[in-house]
Amino acid sequence: MKTKSADAELGSLLDWVEGMRKRVREIAREWEGREGNLIMILHAIQNEFGYVPRGVANELAREMGISMARIYEVITFYHYFRLTPPGSHTVQVCMGTACYLKGAEKLHGELERQLKLMEASGVRKGEFHVENVRCIGCCGMAPAVVMDGDTHGRLCPDAVKDILKRKRGK
Amino acid sequence: MIRQATMVEARINGLPVKAPEGTSILDAARRAGVRIPTLCKHPDLLPTAACGLCIVKIAGDRKMPRACATALQNGMDITTHDGELTRIRRTILELILSTHPNACLTCGRSGNCELQTLVGEFGVRNDRLEKHIRDVPSDHSNGSIIIDFAKCINCARCVQVCQEVQNVWALSILHRGIQMRMAPAGDISLADSPCIKCGQCAAHCPTGAIVEHDEIAAVWEALGDPDTFCSVQIAPSVRVALGEEFGFPPGTNLTRQIYATMRRLGFKAVFDTNFSADLTIMEEASEFVERFAHGRGSLPLITSCCPAWTDYMEKNHQDLINNFSTAKSPQQMLGVVAKTYFSEKMGIDPSKHFQVSIMPCTAKKYELERTDEMFASGYQDVDITLTTRELARMIKQSGLVFSEMPEEDADSVLGEYTGAGTIFGTTGGVMEAALRTGYYFVTGENLPQDGIEIMPVRGLEGVKEAEIDIQGAKVRVAVAHGMANVDKVLDRVRAARERGEEPPYHFIEVMACPGGCIGGGGQPYGISNEVRRKRMEGLYQDDKDRALRCSHENPSIKQIYKDFLGEPLSEKAERLLHTRYKPRKTYRR
Ligand code: SF4
Ligand code: SF4
Ligand code: SF4
Ligand code: FES
Ligand code: FES
After folding, report:
1. Chain B interface includes A51 (CB < 8 A)
2. Which pLDDT tens digit goes with each residue over B172-186?
3. B142 and B266 share one domain
4. CB contact under 8 A, A67 and B163
């Protein structure tokens, strides 16, 4: 039983990859030979997938015969492009020295714990994307967390729940 | 006839200057004896105008243009240095320092860092601005080079080298404005990126943000172990570059002083990679004759002694794998014969034999464990590679006064070399050496004395072509260096193949670094075409000075085939001296 569903999962994943490849090819062909086409193609890809997943960028690099470096240079140059799924929130926990010393790890643990609780109560998995980052240049406010671009400083673990809730409320 | 360039006339600091149209103010000033400070501009590269240090004043212009990116024009009245410019430049340096760690004491570039030098010259003596240092871990993932992002000043030299000169695109500049930063292709580790470990980024970086992986300590340790027999080999191009670290002009050939130094460092046997370059030629020229004269195997034959190049090919030109020479590089050939032939002869236990190679190259570190064939002796054939820069540091650590070293000889058998072996260190050299011996293999005679120097394959032109007559058969060859040039040559080969035509070339030499190994990523800092030319001349002079100039004439080569290997491409030679290639992923993520 278990293997069967694993097979089915793999099967649908492969289908997804096949479909994704096909779409990338179509989009790339559509803009072939046109000036500034990489930006247009990335727009089309973002419209299609909601963001630019690494696997899609990889496929595009192969299809267009260009490098990943070029694609990432363009994606990161324009604020418009996203590297993470939309509708999701990005929580960056600073693990720089100052924040680390002021308990960033505890903060991270509390975040993960709160998210598990939220998932258990029906919040979609993947709605919050948590990552550890290096010093974000706000050491004076350590420990710091960046939530969708907004910096929250001097955070104690108890406050984590609140800001997550506020985010959802928006 | 060369078209006479139009000259422009201007004044720099009140003195009249003349320069060909298109010359930058930076270069024009330099020729007039004035050095304008720079950080982002490198003589090999186009200006990116990123740092702003080279600003100058032009009478009647309220802006301060950047000398590296502004062409000299008729009538310009330029001031390159005054109190105000000095103050602005100091402020620029202070701004750079506000995001730069004060880590000079423990930095791999200390003593020859361009930033450190300028900060010293401009007398910045305190941190006036608040510091914001990026607290990011270094990238140690690939064993050849290390990136310390905190020390990066975003000059983009490495990115330009990696993208435009090498066509590898392992590095990129991400984001913009204050968030701009250099990172491997899309924020992955170097090991997951297309990096070929050529080290050109390290050779062009002005700071300690990219340095070679330093392995001197392991060599000291081996030398200090009484049970270990340490031997060493010195690559062709090291002999004409090492001196720069000790005040000798580029191109000074210090082969015999290096041998003496190695003995004093404690190596029990001193070999020369030039010997195994001759050995490589015996195998590779035989392979060529097999393919060219007997039609056994694909043409063109492509040289494979550069590990950055073989890595590039395995990632990007997998359809040409069968065209690669299977002959190992001189480094690996020396390692295997040192641990088999030499060890047997001298009664040394090969498990106690520790072989160090001194190379111009960071990719050679990677080659040591590239495939199972690098362990053909039953042990790792070469244990450690030190770059020229590391060797210079090791000599300084040892207290030996290099400039006072006597001249000595290498140890016999694996130390004797011909002119063909020594020119391996420069672009065109492998081709020239292979043709000298290939000609002999086909005709039974050496090239005539006036034809032994194959001039069309020499020099710094990115792609060089030649046609050599071997008893009426025309051999078409191409030589390329700098990966971007290599791609052009391979595209021609591929196009001909697709049209079902004869290949445009029979034999292609490739070296990843511009200029070949003399311009390798592990060589002393300060590379430019002028330096490359001088190092090249040093090798060609060494070739001229040799009584024997063809690999097949080397008496030690004759002896090793007679005593041990049989003949080129024999079963034993295949087993010890040849390798295989396989497709590898360009991106591991
Ligand atoms: S890169 Fe240069 S300035 Fe920076 S720490 Fe190293 S030596 Fe000092
Ligand atoms: S070692 Fe060569 S390929 Fe690798 S990042 Fe540096 S320049 Fe690029
Ligand atoms: S790593 Fe070095 S060469 Fe590359 S951008 Fe940074 S400072 Fe410049
Ligand atoms: S360590 Fe967290 S902001 Fe600097
Ligand atoms: S050297 Fe001219 S702007 Fe950096």
Report:
1. no
2. 999 988 889 999 988
3. no
4. yes
